[in-house]
Specification:
The structure holds 3 protein chains of 3 kinds. By secondary structure, chain B is mostly beta strands. In chain B, 10% of the residues lie in helices and 46% in strands. Chain B is elongated, with a radius of gyration of 31 Å. Chain C folds into 4 domains: 69-174, Beta-Lactamase (2-Layer Sandwich); 175-266, Beta-Lactamase, CATH 3.30.450; 322-430; 437-578, Heat Shock Protein 90, CATH 3.30.565.10. The two termini of chain C are 52 Å apart. Classes of the chains: A alpha/beta, B mainly beta, C alpha+beta.
């Protein structure tokens, strides 16, 4: 009866127990507050998406939002009692707060991602942020717009400023949604850009550029330099100065191509795309929106979040980048 | 993160009458032939076409299939491929999105440029369960909906799920569903829902947070359910018995218990409990919510903390393989990992493993004594995402 | 001193102080404005500036060398992917207090630029063109910035690591902050002309505050220095505003004049200015004080009268007359305050009534909750005992007899418990109206204490009865009063588990009587005293908490009053006044 017991089994079991000594119970823990920081600072809670399983209980514009677990949420009350989100916190400060243990979940930009300690849990979404240049009505000459599109050196910006995060794109929707984004050209052609500008009257070669998000100021400065190489006179101004062209970011909120394209068109002030029944028509609808260079897509970037050691469960976001705090709980580590 | 939700409602309204992906091909060959047709029309019969292939998708064999179908179709249409002086240059890319695969052709004839796209739908691979190992374990049921507990009255098998209690009866080698009593809780179930089935003679009791059902399975399934904050009866083997109050809208017992001797006590909150016999005495082990295994005597007076490093689910058995009785325990970890169950003796608050771990294809979501030397374990298969119920039995051997 | 007088004084003092301070400062400035600059002193100072200029250059060289020798510079020189260091120049420049810093690879491609971060990857061909930067001192250079061109003092050093090279080019911009750091004595000023445009540009002639006014007056001097590339002296302006300027050329590495430094010495006579200022200050001070007194007199009268009326009404509310109102005689802030006051008193009266009602409802709820809780607890042992007996019968019948014996005794004990709980509630509910008769309170106390003798002795409690012989009989229900005394004595015993002293006292109080029961037990906190008579409130771990509620009910039926005094750790005294 005892023959199958052996010293080796006991030793192995003890070793397993010792190896597992630092882990806590398997069941999620109820309670606690998850501390999150983001760099955006929306003006009203209506623009804010409410995480599943929570209700908004405190809104201090520009400062913070607090979501409290909804006891009647379908799928059950989340494990967390509250999620407190600090608004308008610069990416670098978020990274420092995470290191110091002052917060639990932060956004990670390209520079911050590179500086993360090994072993840090990082959740990137699929590329769901479109970064693009959007022209205002004042620039009526399509040659100016096309020249700027050809002047932008996406490779340098992607390699250095974005630290190779996301992907270079000439399309409005990313490859993972459409499967044909690669068809839209994203290659710079400085010679062609210069030839176009040479044919434009000098008085029309000046335009102003602003980055809607101050975090993208570096990219706007680089685009200004690229434009100067093509002999376009671009000045970077604050977003409130009614610029001729804006460097914008917009979120893609749907995984379905038709809905995603319609959403992007609305966000960028383009006309509604016609309904598409198949990928061919979808492609043609997207191509039609990009004709005339009113919008110049540059990159598709993921949203990336990092989490501190208190955070258990996860992932924090869906592939579309939506928060999933209902699958998280917090544990105090010794 | 702020989702780009401005105007999303307008988007939804505008797209009400869309039907996505109409006209998709069935397979790579069909998609390739569609493109070949368009290429032929663009180039003209007898023209020379230079083709460059690229695969950006996760498929291997389909790429070759599509390429072969495409070139065959071109040749059947009289076009020449691989010519040194082509009239048309075609760049064909195999790509994919979330729901379908795409063949994208960029064709150029002089200054004229065309792009065509054809697609076929993805098919999800079939999942296969895995299995097999050390402690004697027997898979008794599997279903997509979460399983909370399983019991075996004389009439067949009862399965407790968040939506209801279902009775299955044997039909040859298969279980066949007979009837389901639906559960209608007053509030939504809490996350990490727990539930327990108890057999009482000819009847059964189903215990869930805030809800209790009393019913019978014979001659047919019937049950009456009512809102209840009454304590649950926790059994361990055939002898151990405890009344414990379950915390409202939570996943643990809040510590208010009544002992077998009728005494009411307040102890730290816990996830599960098991009684063991050791050196002639009965002890209670509780997997507390702070991650430790607390030890109590038979009167539920504290006797210290065990050195055991176990998960949140433990169950007592009547198995007496050697000195004392055995307790089954899961491994500590989080729900993203595979789990295992092992049988232990406990002597002087120290656990000693008696068996190799019995591995499971996912985390153990529930572990309940089922009487005798066995316990019921519910596991979530991480690959197939199905829930499986096992009966795990401690077999003493020779 | 009244509020009005204080306000008045405050106005007057504030005005006097402000004007007085201004006069003091102006006088002080005027005094220091007296300085006659001599030509020898000016020359010496110009020479000092020249030296300082050179020293700044050496400082920049030393700083750039420090950066070039740092580990991070070497790291950047050898790294295959310099993109991670994009913002390094900015950080280094900030740390080392440089305005400009570029880290440039051996092929001239910018790795990182503090002044124009977006220029990464662009070439600085002038750096590789020079073979040996290590020996070069600081030099002036025109530097392109994103929105302008600047004149800077620069230094360059090279980092060599194997066959990899990195250029470190750093410097400080010659701008108004640079001018400001060249401290000129009073009556002198330092200007800098930055030769950044092909023709004379007035906005490029700056002092410590930025572009100067009337820059064109200096144009001839500047152009002369630029042309001759040597120092020049000239007096500009006439009369009291004349200044003498010394102009020094600032040359670049190619010996081209990139800037001109000008040092000016004023000739103005400031005495007349100081006298005029003093006269003005005296007039303003006197006028100000007179106006402050007049204005204050009128303003304080307007403010204090309605405030006084409000204060009187607030006093009435504090005395208990909550229905007090104040006449609203204006629409300004005082009138609004009066209106708010009236609304407040009205609200107070309404809230008092609501509060009384809410307290009643809360007391009933508390009773119902406690009843449910008390009755529920004995049910669980009953349940588990029956379950246990069933399991034993089914699974281990050999032990069933023993389990049955233990189980039934538990059942009987809990049933008894249930009966006791029900009984207590029944008693409380059934208390009858008192039957009044003439009662000798002293005899009642003595008799009751006799009954407790044995129990008190056993508990180690010394009993003392202090009975007033002058006490006359009172109208009361003797049986109920006995019950009251028993409850109070039992409470006292419970409060002294280690023993102590129990004192029962009677005192004649006019036509009535006072009964006191004191103990030397653990005492009560003020919060516990407040809640003591609430039905079902108890500080004990056992009991139903009805005892004191019964006491209060009896006292109330006798139209008496009960109160409690207690000090934590010292003891408690219950006091009942009858008649």
């Amino acid at each position: 009866m005892w023959s199958r017991w052996s010293v080796e089994i006991k030793r192995l079991a003890i070793a397993l127990m010792l190896a597992a000594a630092c882990l806590a119970a398997t069941r999620p823990r109820y309670g606690g507050t998850l501390r999150v920081e983001i760099h955006e600072s929306p003006s009203s809670p209506e623009i804010f998406g409410v995480p599943k399983g929570f209700i908004l209980t405190t809104w201090e514009a520009g400062r913070r939002a607090i979501f409290t677990a909804d006891d009647n949420a379908p799928g059950g009350r989340p494990f967390l009692d509250n999620v407190e989100i600090q608004l308008g916190r610069a990416l670098r400060d978020q990274s420092v707060d995470l290191e110091l243990g002052k917060t639990d979940v932060v956004e990670l930009g390209a520079a911050e991602l590179r500086r993360q300690a090994p072993g840090r849990r990082v959740w990137p979404s699929s590329p769901v942020r479109l970064m693009a240049l959007v022209f205002g009505p004042r620039i009526g000459d399509a040659r100016v717009r096309e020249a700027l599109a050809l002047a932008v050196d996406r490779n340098a910006i992607h390699s250095v400023l974005l630290q190779k995060q996301g992907e270079i794109s000439g399309a409005l929707l990313p490859e993972w949604i459409t499967g044909y984004a690669f068809v839209f050209s994203a290659t710079a052609d400085l010679a062609k850009a210069q030839a176009l500008v040479a044919a434009i009257p000098p008085v029309d070669r000046s335009l102003t550029l602003a980055a809607d998000d101050p975090a993208n100021r570096g990219i706007a400065d680089r685009i200004q330099l690229n434009a100067r190489d093509a002999h376009l006179n671009v000045s970077v101004v604050p977003p409130t100065a009614n610029p001729d062209v804006r460097l914008v970011e917009t979120r893609i909120a749907f995984a379905d191509a038709a809905h995603a394209l319609a959403g992007v068109a609305i966000a960028l002030g383009l006309s509604d795309p016609p309904p598409a029944r198949n990928p061919q028509e979808q492609y043609q609808a997207e191509r039609a929106l990009l004709d005339g260079f009113r919008v110049i897509p540059l990159f598709h970037l993921p949203v990336v979040y990092g989490a501190g050691p208190r955070v258990q469960g996860g992932p924090v976001i869906t592939p579309l980048g939506e928060w999933r705090f209902d699958s998280l709980w917090v544990e105090e580590r010794p | 993160m702020i989702a780009a939700v401005k105007g999303w409602h307008a988007v939804s309204a505008a797209l009400l009458f869309f039907s996505a992906s109409a006209g998709a091909a069935d397979d790579p060959g069909g998609a390739a032939k569609e493109l070949a047709r368009k290429t032929t029309a663009f180039a003209g019969r007898g023209a020379a076409v230079a083709i460059v292939w690229r695969n950006l998708s996760s498929l291997d064999s389909a790429a070759n299939q599509a390429r072969a179908a495409f070139e065959d179709a071109l040749q059947q249409a009289g076009l020449r491929t691989g010519d040194l002086a082509p009239l048309v240059e075609a760049k064909v890319t195999l790509s994919e999105d979330a729901s379908q695969y795409l063949l994208v052709e960029e064709a150029s004839k002089g200054d004229e440029h065309q792009v065509w796209i054809s697609a076929w739908k993805r098919v999800e691979p079939a999942s296969t369960p895995s299995g097999g190992l050390t402690l004697e374990k027997k898979l008794v049921w599997e279903q997509p909906e979460p399983i909370l507990d399983v019991a075996f009255p004389p009439a067949g098998m009862l399965v407790l799920s968040p939506s209801g209690v279902t009775l299955y009866a044997r039909n040859g080698a298969q279980w066949q569903s007979q009837r389901t009593v639906l559960l209608t809780p007053a509030k939504p179930w809490p996350a990490d829902l727990r539930g327990h089935l108890r057999l009482r003679g000819a009847g059964f009791q189903a215990l869930l947070p805030g809800l209790e059902c009393d019913g019978t399975a014979d001659p047919s399934l019937s049950a009456e359910c009512h809102a209840s904050e009454e304590p649950w009866v926790l059994e361990s083997g055939s002898r151990g018995l405890l009344l414990a109050s379950f915390a409202a809208a939570r996943n643990y017992f809040d510590g208010r218990i009544t002992t077998q001797g009728g005494q009411r006590k307040n102890i730290p909150p816990f996830f599960s409990a098991a009684s063991v016999e050791s050196q002639g005495r009965t002890w209670w082990l509780l997997a507390a919510t702070d991650g430790r295994i607390q030890v109590f005597d038979n009167a539920l007076e504290p006797s210290g903390v065990s050195s055991a490093q176990w998960g949140s689910d433990i169950a007592g058995t009547d198995a007496h393989c050697g000195a004392g009785s055995q307790v089954l325990a899961t491994r500590p970890g989080d729900r993203s990992q595979l789990d295992s169950i092992q049988a232990f003796n406990v002597s002087d608050r120290t656990p000693q493993p008696l068996t190799d771990p019995a591995d499971f294809p996912g985390p153990v979501m529930a572990l309940w004594t089922s009487g005798g030397s066995a316990a019921t374990a519910v596991v979530k298969n991480l690959r197939s995402q199905q829930y499986s119920a096992y009966v795990v039995t401690v077999v003493c051997g020779n | 001193m009244t509020f009005r007088t204080r306000l008045l004084l405050l106005f007057a003092v504030a005005v006097a102080a402000a004007v007085g301070m201004v006069e003091l400062i102006v006088s002080s400035r005027a005094r220091t404005a007296f300085e006659n600059m001599e030509a020898r002193r000016v020359n010496a100072i110009v020479a000092q500036f020249d030296k300082e200029f050179q020293r700044r250059g050496e400082e920049i060289v030393w700083t750039v060398e420090g950066i070039a020798e740092s580990p991070v510079a070497r790291e950047i020189a050898i790294t295959p992917d310099p993109s991670a260091y994009l913002s390094e120049a900015g950080t280094l420049a900030s740390t080392h207090r440089l305005d400009l810093l570029e880290l440039v690879a051996g092929d001239g491609a910018i790795v990182s630029s503090a002044q124009w971060q977006a220029r990464f990857g662009y070439k600085e061909d002038w750096l590789p063109a020079e073979s040996d930067w290590q020996a070069r001192p600081a030099f002036l250079k025109r530097e392109d910035l994103p929105d302008s061109v600047a004149l800077a003092m620069m230094a360059v050093r090279t980092v060599v690591a194997g066959d990899m090279k990195l250029y470190v080019a750093g410097g400080r911009i010659l701008d108004r902050e640079f001018i400001a750091s060249l401290v000129a004595p009073e009556g002198m000023r330092v200007l800098l002309y930055r030769n950044l445009a092909p023709a004379f540009s007035p906005s490029d002639l700056i002092d410590a505050q930025g572009p100067i006014a009337a820059a064109v007056l200096l144009r001839p001097l500047v152009e002369r220095v630029e042309k001759q590339a040597s120092e020049a002296v000239e007096t500009i302006g006439r009369g009291a505003s004349a200044e003498t300027f010394h102009a020094l050329p600032l040359k670049g590495s190619a010996n081209d004049v990139l800037g001109v430094l000008l040092v000016g010495n004023s000739r103005r006579d400031l005495v007349g200015l100081e006298r005029a200022m003093l006269r003005t200050a005296v007039i303003v001070t006197v006028t100000g004080i007179l106006m402050a007194i007049a204005l204050g007199w009128w303003a304080t009268a307007r403010v204090t009268r309605p405030v006084r009326r409000l204060a009187e009404s607030a006093g009435k509310v504090a005395a208990g007359n909550w229905g007090t109102t104040v006449a609203v005689s204006s629409k300004d802030e005082i009138g609004q305050l009066a209106g708010a006051f009236n609304r407040m008193t009205h609200e107070l009266v309404e809230q008092r009534e609501r509060l009384v009602q809410a307290e009643r409802v809360a007391a009933w709820r508390e009773l119902a909750r406690r009843l449910a809780h008390e009755l529920k607890n004995p049910l669980f042992p009953l349940q588990i005992t029956v379950e246990n007996m069933q399991r034993a019968r089914e699974h281990y019948p050999e032990q069933f007899d023993e389990v049955f014996r233990e189980g039934t005794s538990t059942l009987l004990a809990e049933l008894t418990n249930l009966k006791q709980i029900v009984g207590r509630f029944s008693d409380f509910a059934k208390m009858p109206a008192p039957e009044m008769q003439s009662v000798n309170l002293n005899a009642l106390v003595a008799e009751t204490m006799r009954l407790f003798e044995a129990q008190l002795a056993k508990a180690g409690i010394r009993a003392s009865a202090q009975l007033d012989p002058a006490l006359r009989p009172v109208q009361a229900d003797g049986e109920q009063l006995t019950r009251v005394l028993r409850n109070l004595i039992l409470n006292a015993v419970d409060a002294m588990p280690e023993g102590g002293t129990l004192t029962v006292r009677t005192v004649a109080a006019g036509s009535g009587a006072r009964l006191e029961v004191s103990d030397t037990g653990q005492g009560l906190t003020p919060e516990e005293c407040d809640r003591l008579f609430t039905p079902y409130y108890t500080t004990k771990t056992h009991g139903t908490g009805l005892g004191l509620a019964i006491v209060q009910s009896v006292v109330s039926d006798h139209k008496g009053r009960i109160s409690v005094e207690s000090e934590k750790g010292k003891g408690t005294t219950f006091r009942i006044d009858l008649g």
